[in-house]
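ok so heres the complex, eight chains, lmk if somethin looks off
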Amino acid sequence: MNPTDIQALLNRVRGGLMSVDEAMLLLGDSSAFERDFAHVDTDRPRRTGQPEAIFGEGKTAEDIIAILRRLHQSDQDGLVTRLDTDKAAHIQDVLPGCEWHQRARVLRYPAPSPRPDRAVRGRIAIVCAGTSDLPVAEEAAVIAEAYGNPVDRYWDVGVSGIHRIMGHAPALQSASAIIVVAGMEGALASVVTGLVSAPVIAVPTSIGYGASFGGISALLGMLNSCAAGVSVVNIDNGFGAAVMADRVNRRMGDT
Amino acid sequence: MNPTDIQALLNRVRGGLMSVDEAMLLLGDSSAFERDFAHVDTDRPRRTGQPEAIFGEGKTAEDIIAILRRLHQSDQDGLVTRLDTDKAAHIQDVLPGCEWHQRARVLRYPAPSPRPDRAVRGRIAIVCAGTSDLPVAEEAAVIAEAYGNPVDRYWDVGVSGIHRIMGHAPALQSASAIIVVAGMEGALASVVTGLVSAPVIAVPTSIGYGASFGGISALLGMLNSCAAGVSVVNIDNGFGAAVMADRVNRRMGDT
Amino acid sequence: MNPTDIQALLNRVRGGLMSVDEAMLLLGDSSAFERDFAHVDTDRPRRTGQPEAIFGEGKTAEDIIAILRRLHQSDQDGLVTRLDTDKAAHIQDVLPGCEWHQRARVLRYPAPSPRPDRAVRGRIAIVCAGTSDLPVAEEAAVIAEAYGNPVDRYWDVGVSGIHRIMGHAPALQSASAIIVVAGMEGALASVVTGLVSAPVIAVPTSIGYGASFGGISALLGMLNSCAAGVSVVNIDNGFGAAVMADRVNRRMGDT
Amino acid sequence: MNPTDIQALLNRVRGGLMSVDEAMLLLGDSSAFERDFAHVDTDRPRRTGQPEAIFGEGKTAEDIIAILRRLHQSDQDGLVTRLDTDKAAHIQDVLPGCEWHQRARVLRYPAPSPRPDRAVRGRIAIVCAGTSDLPVAEEAAVIAEAYGNPVDRYWDVGVSGIHRIMGHAPALQSASAIIVVAGMEGALASVVTGLVSAPVIAVPTSIGYGASFGGISALLGMLNSCAAGVSVVNIDNGFGAAVMADRVNRRMGDT
Amino acid sequence: MNPTDIQALLNRVRGGLMSVDEAMLLLGDSSAFERDFAHVDTDRPRRTGQPEAIFGEGKTAEDIIAILRRLHQSDQDGLVTRLDTDKAAHIQDVLPGCEWHQRARVLRYPAPSPRPDRAVRGRIAIVCAGTSDLPVAEEAAVIAEAYGNPVDRYWDVGVSGIHRIMGHAPALQSASAIIVVAGMEGALASVVTGLVSAPVIAVPTSIGYGASFGGISALLGMLNSCAAGVSVVNIDNGFGAAVMADRVNRRMGDT
Amino acid sequence: MNPTDIQALLNRVRGGLMSVDEAMLLLGDSSAFERDFAHVDTDRPRRTGQPEAIFGEGKTAEDIIAILRRLHQSDQDGLVTRLDTDKAAHIQDVLPGCEWHQRARVLRYPAPSPRPDRAVRGRIAIVCAGTSDLPVAEEAAVIAEAYGNPVDRYWDVGVSGIHRIMGHAPALQSASAIIVVAGMEGALASVVTGLVSAPVIAVPTSIGYGASFGGISALLGMLNSCAAGVSVVNIDNGFGAAVMADRVNRRMGDT
Amino acid sequence: MNPTDIQALLNRVRGGLMSVDEAMLLLGDSSAFERDFAHVDTDRPRRTGQPEAIFGEGKTAEDIIAILRRLHQSDQDGLVTRLDTDKAAHIQDVLPGCEWHQRARVLRYPAPSPRPDRAVRGRIAIVCAGTSDLPVAEEAAVIAEAYGNPVDRYWDVGVSGIHRIMGHAPALQSASAIIVVAGMEGALASVVTGLVSAPVIAVPTSIGYGASFGGISALLGMLNSCAAGVSVVNIDNGFGAAVMADRVNRRMGDT
Amino acid sequence: MNPTDIQALLNRVRGGLMSVDEAMLLLGDSSAFERDFAHVDTDRPRRTGQPEAIFGEGKTAEDIIAILRRLHQSDQDGLVTRLDTDKAAHIQDVLPGCEWHQRARVLRYPAPSPRPDRAVRGRIAIVCAGTSDLPVAEEAAVIAEAYGNPVDRYWDVGVSGIHRIMGHAPALQSASAIIVVAGMEGALASVVTGLVSAPVIAVPTSIGYGASFGGISALLGMLNSCAAGVSVVNIDNGFGAAVMADRVNRRMGDT
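and the predicted structre for the whole thing:
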């Protein structure tokens, strides 16, 4: 926060237009931050294996910057999902160390200390039905990579041309976890699950129109898959699929 | 209606337990029948190409027998769908000329005059995902055959083992219309439609549990197919799919 | 892509603002295109009888141009549906050979080689309930024509004035396939199906308000039609109806 | 209640198996009845023009008998809807003055004093799409007649054979109110409303299967009718339609 | 259409940017209009008692003007519903004879010949729950008045302060039809129906938030009213309620 | 468990038809019970103020008896809800100290030690719309009384005759909490909440048919009440409403 | 309203562009206001204990100002909820005595006479799952404080880090009522209700995406809580929760 | 099939009451079996790591026996899920080698050759919220064990008493995969996922009533979990969860 902004803020406080707590929050005082606004769960990496991520939609750039700074102070990675380009640009102006992944809509603010290399045993395969599903698939890919997993991408291999996915079956068979991203009827999840022995995490997307009902058709298709060995995350939840896949792969790496 | 039944009926009328109109209906007086109960659409075969069929669910055996007799008098085939075994047995007792198709739950009462052979150009292929979907697929098959179409059956070829349907692609390619019957996520419709150039009629079934919601998941999956060239009929509506396929095939036969 | 654009692109690559793969995609390098972004299904016309079409909604003009060029290189027709006026204008600026159908929101980029005349036996009738349903009906009409079918249009013949459609019954009877487009309660599909022997493809539209729920009322009405011989495509899916009708008609033309 | 029953009841009270209030209720003591169980709205006929009717589903025969007796004591007609055959037989055994309408599932217990003839100006037409919808249509008809309205019945005139309803248009035009009863897609309501100037009351029925969802498809179809001049009651609510039509017709008779 | 516009139009035709049919439509050639765009149902007033009304939402001002002119040529009233202020202003500029009802969002273009006074026997009462429901209630009121009915308005009398509606019971009792407009839980319809003997037409509105689901809660509440004598139109359909009430009232005036 | 049963059980264990753990569970060994089947939360009364209650639906009489015995051993009251008559009779045979509330479908097994009298400040009023809602209302009443609250019952006061509830307003005003039980449209909750200043707990019931969707219409009506001061529990959840009301009333008694 | 506005208004009246009633409404004439637009329920504070609040969404700033002035004239507090920043600023310009709570989106216009201090016995605790739920939680807090209740805030204590809420259990135990605000799956309500004996009022929020369906997942989660002692208000209805909590707390203060 | 049955079968064939194909199917001729009824996917164990399982619901005992025999002939394990007690007893009579797991409703027919011991690295933990959810949890446990995984059971640890699950956190942390089974609001999945770093597979159950809608509330709660690291299978799909967990665990064992 630059001097002009601080001066304006203090004037608003003096004029009764802003409470002291709100001002402290914006000024980054961490005790007020903890008490009034957000309990940043600094214990989480130890407990669940993954740092907290920030859902960017519906948060202001200022809120996000405040939380990123707080994570940075705890020497943790900061990851923001579902960010739009304008807010990303604004955050990068303030925190130049951030990396911005446009198509995935993910911003990463690396922790100050370099993380030790992680011994990972397996690879995560991400399979995407159509080009419109790519933002969700890329979100999964970027998050999985940020957590230290090697990722293989299989784009635009939907079932309307079934030969496209058939050719990749041997490669998919060797992944430690497979994420399948598809909208519309979501049939790709069933086909892939029937081809391999790896655990499959299905991500329905909101791609479609009419009776796709914002992703419900794909969600139901995946939940009702005639092939067993697949489980499902929320519509468009590339992030959640990546965390699940990371947990699976991390188990293998815990040797 | 045999003399004992008639006597019982008249006693019920005299005792005020049955109205005159209901009695006339049961006795088969066609004018009362027409006026009070059912406008049998005897013009339909000429107009739409298919005789009227009777939806057996929720009708009494007596109602069905009355309508079958009425169609027989007009020298039309009588077809009853969604019939249970008990009612079928009762109807066959009264009208011994009926044919009963157990698995399809379809009963047929052939018209008195033999129908002229029909010049049909093409074959109808019926593809069925799982063994639990068979009653619906058989309903479609029996109706299509009753309308004079040659039918090819492909049973238990769901997408969880994708190689099962792949091997049939050349044969399916030559059909004049393909009916795909599937429950759960209904993905088979998309896969078949992407493999062939024939028009595909998809029938979602109510097979499944939990979030399949009595066939909604399959219905939505088929409506949202990523492959174009498929249209959908109501859940479990094997009859409707057969009529649609017959209309397609009949066009080809109108040479 | 003109030199200025390329220069700008390269500067963005050098500055780390664009990945090499994205740059290659925009530059039209087909191997990167195939690997990272879109498996254009160049085998589809041979397999299913129809070229792939591009769903324009949610794609950028740049993405669409890239795919159109790729199809053009394979000597295939390019069809884009659900395009808005601004993107269409931009695409026409870059690819002046495109035809733009405003009301249908369809853009066509003809293949370089003229297509051989197609021997088509029948006509496709398109029946539209109300003036608000016209964009969907026109989408069906333009696509069907693009595939080489003669099309007859019957506009604004909804059931609230039943005489309007009754007068067209003889003409409809002679079509090889009928597409019925209607919103609100979608009753027109049932009335038409009961009048003719041709196969009917019903397209529910999202026209309506309140309890029409974006087309669900019309969709359910059509799926539950009391007349058999009709099947249904997704809400507002004029394109899908045209492909289905083309498959029906093409069968007849395969003499 | 016969002596044996009363004795058994008192024993249950003495044994603590039944509360005094429940016993008084069963014994028909009206003050307990009023206080603990049911506020019979004896003022309703004066206020709303129609006597209270009893929804028979889910009530025991004993409960119904108690309420019928209470109405009888107030010299009011008793009407019971949605009654099954067994309970009706039991009630008729206890209250022999009851009339039983089998198909309509309605039982009527006439008031002790004859009702004065009512000056009714108009007739109520009831139009029914299919034979399976008849119980609902008959419920409407029997209730409307019980309230003193002349009723004309038009049965089995669904839109799959549109000529059936077209021929009745002139007769329908002269009704003071029209009730349209239809299941499946409910399209008959739109067609009738477009043909006449009388107010139309639409009753969706639960007839159908699959995506008819127990009458939702017909309900939505009727609510979204493209023809204005129609309003809708609950699924299978023949009773409610009759009350609405009676209110309309009664206004005309209030000269 | 002024000369400049016509010139521009012809240039677009010559340049291939507009089809001849579209041009004829815009130029108001009625035969093209009839054939290609809209079957204006000029017989409707005779058949159903009400002129056709134009649903303004989603139509361009130009489309509306064309239809209004066509009705005017047939000496019929033109009524447009669901119009926004900007389009209304534009239409009034072109057709200065129009009346604009802001709150009701209804525009009326009176027929050239004055309509004969109508002998109406009864009054229509319109009851509105909250101030946010007023646009729908006013739509009903303006349409009912446009059809020649005297209208009484009862605004802001929702059930959270039940005394507000109780005081109006005697006045409501004398109406020939009552329209009840309410959002949220829609309870006002039940209360009013229990108070009076007039037929009640309930209009659920989309007012509410959260689990009101755009009017579904009010719609279901009204369909499931514990009071009989009420029927329901679509969500926000003030127009439909007015047509229904007019049909009821007109019957009474047909003396 | 009698000797014959035990012998049979042991034979099944020896024959491998039953696991040791299952046998121990049936034999009532509490350590196995705790480990394998049910963590009876004996700390709950201290923590939340109410003992645990047993949901009887879907549990066998044997399961229920086992849990009741376990609670009895901890000197706690046992309450079973949603019990049917047959299972209740069976449990009373085994545990004769149980009280059975037929209409409420609640069984109570009092703790061995008498509970100290509770100092309760206020009364709980329970208001019930129709006679069919009584089982839910009685469940709430019996549970509230079992927890030591005085209860006032107001039965059959639905809004279709609004005067019935209006007369009770002063009495309701003095309650410390009011439970409103209603099905169909659930409007009674709004009317009561607007009349009083006490907190209102609304219980939607599954009473209704057609578009009441098993209580959804009442649930939505109550959630969307235009009157503030009401909150809602699950459909038919008389038990939950009683616990909520007890918590409110207990606060007042904590002096 | 300033002179320029009044002049413009009168010109519109003279030109027929505005009705006299609408003009009187805008001019603030209270009798017209009462008659035509809004029955302000000035008796409500006496009857229900809380003044009427104004739902700001969808109302113009002018409408809100008119109602606030009317309440002010009756010496009542004016509370506006769901207000956006722009309208709030405009209202503060016209009525400078207003207080604006930005995060809660609540504006308060205090009554002219100071309210007597209220004897309140208990405190209201408000527990909020995530930072995105804060606007709803703050709405509840500000309203509860405006009604004179002391409020304790517990922010960002969602169940993904269960230790955060566990530490607050003793403090929560002493509240007279607890409001739990949560989106997504809404699990926090179950956890809190199981920890304490105070009555819990749950507020589902529309926070979430995909299958959260605008708050339906949280709403259903709270309605189906496995812990008893919780009831639920509408999605995002912080205001309703505060009124319910105030009613509970007020009971305790009525000593 | 015993001689009497075969004789009866042949008589039905001779009498035209059964087709030859159906007879062959019942006689167990494997070629007809393969062609007409069921493509048993004997390649599946090699491809996906798990043998095919038979969904018992809706299949006759005879169908199940035929498939079990077919698997036995291929030296594969046969697993039947969702079997009821009567059919299980019948199957055990015919195939005495079957094991029957009553609570899990799972029947297993071991392959003739003993399976080699499997090197499994990790354990699967199964956590179950309430006693009513046990059948689903046991299905998961029995299947996971049948596939060779060691399983730890944590029963009756729902969130209404949060301390029950908290004590198990360290043990859960060491599992290679955790299956969480819960009905009602399904909150247990969120709490567990926040406590551990293992991948969590959530199974919603249909336990609940009212607005739980047969498991939808739990399903939505789990899909919308505020904790990442969890994915979801279909309602009541204990089998699917076990297959997913086995795939995860098997990856770890592939050393």
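quick notes: Chains F and B do not touch (no CB pair under 8 Å). thats all i got rn
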